[in-house]
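Notes, p. 3: input format for complexes.
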Amino acid sequence: MSAPRTLNTAPLTALYNADALRRIERHYAPDSTPRLMERAGATGAAKAMQLVGGRHGRILVLCGPGNNGGDGFVLARQLKQTGFDVTVVHDCDEHRGAEDAVMAWASWRAVGGLTLPRVPDTGYALVVDALYGIGLTRPIEGVHATWIDAVNEMDCPVLAIDVPSGLNADTGAVMGRAIRASHTATMIAMKPGLFTLDGPDHCGEVSLHDLGLDCAAVTPPSGWQVGRELFAHLLRPRARNSHKGTHGNAMLVGGARGMAGAALLAGRAALKVGAGRVFVGMLDHAALPLDPEQPELMIRTPAEVLAGDLATCVAIGPGLGQSPAALDLMRDAVRTPATLVLDADALNLLAQHGDLEQALTRREAATLLTPHPMEAARLLRSSTAKIQQDRIVSARELARRFRASVVLKGCGSVIALPDGRWFINTTGNPGMASAGMGDVLTGLIAGLLAQGWPADLALLGGVHLHGLAGDRLVAQGKGPNGLTAGEVIESARAAFNALIAGADSRDPRHSTR
Ligand SMILES: NC(=O)C1=CN([C@@H]2O[C@H](COP(=O)(O)OP(=O)(O)OC[C@H]3O[C@@H](n4cnc5c(N)ncnc54)[C@H](OP(=O)(O)O)[C@@H]3O)[C@@H](O)[C@H]2O)[C@@H](O)CC1
Ligand SMILES: Nc1ncnc2c1ncn2[C@@H]1O[C@H](COP(=O)(O)OP(=O)(O)O)[C@@H](O)[C@H]1O
Ligand SMILES: [K+]
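Output follows (513 residues plus potassium ion):
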């Protein structure tokens, strides 16, 4: 049996999907004084005032047909009463909205507020987007699409209330059109769609406003944001009295002709995150018996690496190719009693050979899969577009089907465990969309496994550290343009040591106020 999956999720930022949020709202809404919408609107108004910085400029508020629009009316009223010049745009008839939203509209009119049926000229200090929140059910079309286009052309801060309108709060997919906000004030709980796929490009800086509600008392989180708290207990300084055997052996297999670089990048990453010894089984062994830039790597034939009984972990895939020899190696690799990491062509072979899938699902030790969306599509006999439509569902399906822990890579990598739990990692940046970055991730995971990290934590920690390393480089002016995988290895070493020393920060892009 594999080790029990004991992960302490309690300190992590919880993510709630729309169904869970509805349960929370139903639980609290009837007895809430003041009403939740009043609280949400007041919170949004405070955030708006913070953004305009006390300047009494003009503020435009787009209000939609549902409760998100209701939040907008409350916010508009409060800003107007504070002395701001507020224009509301709204085009629904009075009787369509939810009861609270109709009341909020009435209160807006009661203070002399006017609504316009179209987006007027520009020149605003701030636009507030309260068109749609978690109730978006279909792509935005027609007049609301033109409003969104107009706002996206404006040269001023845009504050989205709860979710940028048009963004699916569960998946991060744009439905037709979506507001590109500079700030998102999200209510009650963080939503997964803010952090994956198109979410980060549309949310700007995200702040959480819990409205005083205790979500976990009503329903468990749907998922979690990866944070260093998950693996903080593993970030220990090395014992003075340690030797290379203490820090484990990482075995990597790949590097077919013309693809040696992939295996070497993975090997170097494993070494520089601290594995005691790294063996790289190169398919093209004759051509490269040594890594001249990293002679510490022990280059072997793949068979030698897989036959060894020293392995703490085996990672196979970077530069593996799909030759008959590669397939034979995969058949050997899935029989290893060590934790197994499958990446790149190892995943492509798995997708094509049912016997590999069967052998994988019978393994006793943990298996980790690191597909990008196209590899995930091959594994699930689907298309990249379908995988991306709902990255959380896709990652969970992979984890269930292959009885493995999975990272579905990309913007907001989704990590899913075979028991159904899932996480979104928010470190990393588009500079990492370049060749070799996936190989580095595989090496980092292997290096953590070698040092004894439990499989799921090595996956979660490796993904987090990989992104952190990329973010450090951007902060140093070395990206995102032109960021290279080799630099990420160096940066990961620094980031990992800083984490252990307690000197590194958490993800600076999200705040709780
Ligand atoms: N409830 C509470 O206690 C609290 C709720 N809060 C706030 O409420 C928000 C959720 O409110 P909500 O459920 O009313 O959904 P919302 O996003 O406003 O839209 C629903 C409306 O849009 C319509 N519609 C959907 N898609 C459409 C499209 N593409 N094109 C056109 N129409 C479309 C849909 O119509 P239908 O699909 O029924 O035809 C319906 O009329 C949440 O995000 C938060 O901001 C907070 O105040 C905290 C307390
Ligand atoms: N836009 C992005 N934001 C955050 N991380 C990204 C982004 N693009 C790529 N990455 C990360 O970089 C790595 C790329 O891996 P992969 O697609 O396998 O690349 P390669 O095959 O070239 O090595 C993944 O860990 C992925 O999550
Ligand atoms: K909105």
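The chain has 17 helices and 19 strands.
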